[in-house]
């Protein structure tokens, strides 16, 4: 038997059904006995939605009103009545089993499954298997329109069924016409047999993915805006009703190995992928999720792996994976098993543990654990932030794709300091320092457009540009190295700073107004070193907070000072991109120029330990006098780094390590002669900044 089912939501109708997340408001159904060609009673049931605000299209097409729906039963009660009435009709017809049959896939996949998932109640088994009448019709009548162009009306017109849509209530006509179409397909001329129903997966299956596997780009999407703590099961729930391929959820990680709110999802076919794209800006909790097309190459880059160790670890299918972070570097398998305890046994004991290591074999402090059921995994998650040794351990849900990304060192092999580029122009300026006193000779710009550069700021300040100190413009970047919307400017005097604040406050830059406040050099330094400045006063930078890891940053009052030559080797991510102004052909070539009164450039310690924000230097934004061009062109200088890659970074050093121990460690290797401090000529304050973290930068 078939149960012919039709439904409507409070929003879009037809091809866009379910694309706007609107709730179901109508169900109409009728049982059809395919052998005796008899039908049961036709049932129509209104559904009370949480939001009774009907769209104009819904009102026009269905004729329903909020008042009428307000008297209806909620969806869970209507589905209970559906099961009871179908069972009763089957008994009358002498049948016991049935399969749903709907007009297309949208009602089942895009409406019923997502809505019941959000409302946290389960659909009965009958909703996981159904016939798509449009596909069955096209199989029976190959010369008819393509499946995507079929509607109930076009099928009836193709068969010449004389039905009038206006004579019946909305939903009743649709079900009666669908039944008539089915009977036509069962006639002697066609003898159509319903054999292969559409299926909806009960749950998402985890599993590994090989880099040699072929992934069709027409089956992959990118989901963006996910909560950072969301797991593969949460993403599968967001796409409830659609069939995700086995191991088809790959969570993307950032450069530090943490989830960045994006995931690549692979579906079983292009039809499921197209339905997933219709869920663009649907909600996961209070967040809307963006859904875009992606490629198979992108999916393999994230999810693909070839490590035998990973393949063996993930060979046990249908396991719950938990990621542990912050383990002591000396932790053993027995330590981890003891930490988890008997209430959450690990699948296979020690074989269910996978420690993550750097390419050189050193432990990273991360591990993955397998559990055979959800109960054991939940018990393990209750140990989040409990202590092992002297460290608290973080526990999160994880995925097979995340295991492959982390263990295969997709991010861990990338150095924090990239290969240094060729120097721009080797010019060493005289000493220059940022004032740190309480004189209010600085201004803070807040609310800058994120696309604004230093040239935009100079244009914004107009005539006051002449009163800016050399290298006095400091852009504040966020943790991702992008503009934060803030900037600090050092003026030549407190009076000049006051005049700028009065003149430019709430002046427009592009399409935004910018707030301009007068402040002191001390306040500016607090923000540039990672602190915050607000109406309630100063909040110290993270280097002065006890919770920062590594925890032992020495207190300091000024930024670390480095030679200008070293500043020329800064990673390009820290240097703003100059937009070339329109100039005449006779304009002299641009060179990096530091005025005579400019002393030394400031490199924030964040260039060596990635903690926001940073304040890049204004290289390239100060015009060079004609004489300086000739001097720079004829000057001879040997750069401190004769070739890229001469800089190495040491991590994991004891906190009391000194210069003697480092030189002894590199015994037998030739380092930069006559300069054991390497690239950076350390002052006492700079030395305290660089020595406090557990790392050194050496030549």
From TrEMBL:
Span of domain RRM: 219-296
PROSITE patterns: RRM (PS50102)
Keyword Nucleus: yes
Coiled-coil intervals, chain numbering: none
Signal peptide: none
Subcellular location: Nucleus
GO cellular component, one term: nucleus
GO biological process: mRNA processing; RNA splicing
Gene3D superfamilies: 3.30.70.330, Ribonuclease H-like superfamily/Ribonuclease H
Keyword presence, Transcription regulation: no
Primary location class: nucleus
Molecular-function GO terms, alphabetical: RNA binding
Alphabetical keyword list: mRNA processing, mRNA splicing, Nucleus, Repeat, RNA-binding
PANTHER family: HETEROGENEOUS NUCLEAR RIBONUCLEOPROTEIN-RELATED
Family: Belongs to the ESRP family.
Protein name as it appears in the record: Epithelial splicing regulatory protein 2
Gene: Esrp2
């Amino acid at each position: 038997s078939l149960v012919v089912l039709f439904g409507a939501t409070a929003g879009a109708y037809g091809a866009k059904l379910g694309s706007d997340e609107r709730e179901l408001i109508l169900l109409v159904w009728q049982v059809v006995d395919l052998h005796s060609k008899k039908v049961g009673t036709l049932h129509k049931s209104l559904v009370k939605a949480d939001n009774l605000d009907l769209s104009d299209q819904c009102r026009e097409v269905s004729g329903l009103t909020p008042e009428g729906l307000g008297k209806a039963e909620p969806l869970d009660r209507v589905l209970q009545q559906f099961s009871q009435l179908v069972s009763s009709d089957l008994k009358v017809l002498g049948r016991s089993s049935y399969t749903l049959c709907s007009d297309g896939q949208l009602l089942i996949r895009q409406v019923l499954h997502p809505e019941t998932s959000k409302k946290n109640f389960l659909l009965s088994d009958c909703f996981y298997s159904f016939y798509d009448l449009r596909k069955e019709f096209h199989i029976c009548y190959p010369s008819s329109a393509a499946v995507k162009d079929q509607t109930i009306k076009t099928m009836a017109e193709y068969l010449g069924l004389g039905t009038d849509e206006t004579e019946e209530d909305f939903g009743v006509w649709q079900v009666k016409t669908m039944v008539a179409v089915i009977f036509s397909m069962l006639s002697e001329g066609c003898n159509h047999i319903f054999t292969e129903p559409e299926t909806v997966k009960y749950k998402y299956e985890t599993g590994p993915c090989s880099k040699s596997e072929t992934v069709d780009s027409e089956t992959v999407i990118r989901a963006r805006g996910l909560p950072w703590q969301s797991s593969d099961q949460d993403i599968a729930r967001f796409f409830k009703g659609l069939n995700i391929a086995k191991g088809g959820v790959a969570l993307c990680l950032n450069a530090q190995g943490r989830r960045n709110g994006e995931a690549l999802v692979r579906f079983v076919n292009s039809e499921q992928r197209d339905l997933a794209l219709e869920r663009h800006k649907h909600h996961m909790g209070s967040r809307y999720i963006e859904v875009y097309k992606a490629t198979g190459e992108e999916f393999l880059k994230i999810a693909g792996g070839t490590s035998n160790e990973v393949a063996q670890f993930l060979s046990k299918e249908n396991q719950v994976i938990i990621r542990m972070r912050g383990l002591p570097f000396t932790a053993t398998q027995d330590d981890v098993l003891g930490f988890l305890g008997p209430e959450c046994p690990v699948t296979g004991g020690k074989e269910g543990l996978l420690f993550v290591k750097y390419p050189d074999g050193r432990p990273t402090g991360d591990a993955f654990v397998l559990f055979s059921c959800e109960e054991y995994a939940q018990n393990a998650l209750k140990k989040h932030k409990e202590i092992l040794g002297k460290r608290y351990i973080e526990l999160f849900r994880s995925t097979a794709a995340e295991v492959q990304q982390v263990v295969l060192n997709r991010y861990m092999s990338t150095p924090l300091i990239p290969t240094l580029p060729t120097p721009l122009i080797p010019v060493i300026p005289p000493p220059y320092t940022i004032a740190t006193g309480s004189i209010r000779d600085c201004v803070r710009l807040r609310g800058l457009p994120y696309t604004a550069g230093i040239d935009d700021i100079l244009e914004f300040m107009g005539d006051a540009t002449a009163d800016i100190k050399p290298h006095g413009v400091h852009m504040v970047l966020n943790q991702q190295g992008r503009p934060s919307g803030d900037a600090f400017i050092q003026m030549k005097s407190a009076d000049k700073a006051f005049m700028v604040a009065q003149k430019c406050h709430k002046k427009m830059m592009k399409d935004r107004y910018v707030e301009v406040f007068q402040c002191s050099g001390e306040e500016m330094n607090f923000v540039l070193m990672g602190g915050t400045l607000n109406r309630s006063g100063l909040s110290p930078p993270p280097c002065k907070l006890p919770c920062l890891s590594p925890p032992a940053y020495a207190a300091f009052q000024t930024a670390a000072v480095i030679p200008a030559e070293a500043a020329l080797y800064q990673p390009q991510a820290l240097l703003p991109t100059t937009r070339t102004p329109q100039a005449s052909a006779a304009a002299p070539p641009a060179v990096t120029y530091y005025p005579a009164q400019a002393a030394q450039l400031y490199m924030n310690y964040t260039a060596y330990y990635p903690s926001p924000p940073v304040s890049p230097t204004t290289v390239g934004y100060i015009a060079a006098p004609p004489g300086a061009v000739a001097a720079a062109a004829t000057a001879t200088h040997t750069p401190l780094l004769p070739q890229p890659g001469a800089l190495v970074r040491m991590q994991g050093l004891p906190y009391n390590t000194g210069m003697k121990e480092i030189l002894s460690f590199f015994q037998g290797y030739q380092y930069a002669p006559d300069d054991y401090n390497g690239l950076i000529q350390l002052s006492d304050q700079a030395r305290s900044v660089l020595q406090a973290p557990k790392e050194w930068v050496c030549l």
